[in-house]
Amino acid sequence: MRKLDGYEAELIKSIIHDVESVIELDGKKYHLTLIEKPESTVKEDVNADAELKQKLLQAKKDVLDGNFHSTEDVLEMIEQGEL
User: What is the dihedral of CA 71, 73, 79, 83, to 10 degrees?
Assistant: First the structure.
């Protein structure tokens, strides 16, 4: 199996989401299809787990209120023994 990132992943996603997911490469035709489907969506997970929903709502509120630290800030706090 090869993991695709960036442009490659976006290109393959656009082909899969088209009505026709057959591509031709070097004179050979390939059919692209989903072989593994997630058990649930993020929305379903959030609706099913009140604690997760509350954490996400709090995180959103913190970001909107400007109450957050950048990665660099956190790394510096760790280096200084604050965390």
Answer: -90
